[in-house]
Amino acid sequence: MLATIVLAVATLTYFHLRQRAPAENSRADAAQLMADLMSGKTPVGGPFTLTDQGGHRRGLADYRGKLVLLYFGYTYCPDVCPTDLMEIGNVIRALGRDGDEVQPIFITLDPTRDSKDTLRAYVAAFHPRFVALTGSERDVRPVATSYKVFFEKVRPPGASTYLIDHSAYTFLLDREGRFVTLFPPGTPHDRMASMVREQLAAH
Fold it and tell me: Residue 157, SS3?
């Protein structure tokens, strides 16, 4: 876990619009979330309930007894999100039958545009057992903040729509929904699968 956290320091402030300097208050918010995560003195994550791509209310309690690979992103994400979600799907496949003991979950940071139908088609492209969760921004933001995930809408000069700057981690939760570790963006699926196997063997 320590090695993963140390590696995350270098990537924690990676946002999709790398050429854009964030506003001072946004930089401060992101830095505070990083400090909270790295200190180990504040809890990471916790119970939540949102709405899945089928319109059903779902929470961590629904997946008790399974490990969870949790990711925050959005379907209009141009590069990092699809790459990481593909790797999560590959983790499940690499685990073979043990993959049934792991639940992949995607929480959208763009509930305004990411409808249930959009989410359903999007996550199905990465693995058929992916659960996508949404809600109002008021619902989603405290969940993201509890996992120390920073996000904000940005509109590049001349763009017709907005993108979302966000920190991109894959969180591993234990069978009780408790935070175990995180994987920085771009972590290969075999590295994640190795950690997941260790966690499966431990419980």
Answer: coil
